[in-house]
């Protein structure tokens, strides 16, 4: 029995309302901000922050699930795991590099 990337599916998880970070911060930086009480945007800002952290953790947990599948593949394939588990190993390396929990305060990387 071979475990590969084709056999693996994302698990179902709870769906949350999506917030656009750029829209919220664009509203906060307009000149009308002085006339609008700040507490009106607070719930949207907090919801966007929670969404960002939640999305980062979902990506980090996806990497953990891929790692678990990769270890199962290594155990079942034995000496042929270099060939038969290559797709999962590539997926795991990509997930480890890209899926990090950054938080909402992380500034975007500037191009040098």
Automatic annotation (TrEMBL):
A Gene Ontology cellular-component term: mitochondrial inner membrane
Where does the signal sequence lie?
Answer: none
Instruction: Spell out the subcellular localization from the entry.
Output: Mitochondrion inner membrane
Record key words, sorted: Electron transport, Membrane, Mitochondrion, Mitochondrion inner membrane, Respiratory chain, Transport
Question: Which residues are listed as membrane-spanning?
Answer: none
Predominantly, its location class is mitochondrion
Q: How does it sit in the membrane?
A: Peripheral membrane protein
What InterPro entries is this protein classified in? NDUFB10
Where does the source fall among the domains of life?
Eukaryota
Mind telling me what this protein is named?
NADH-ubiquinone oxidoreductase 12 kDa subunit
The scientific name of the source species is Umbelopsis vinacea
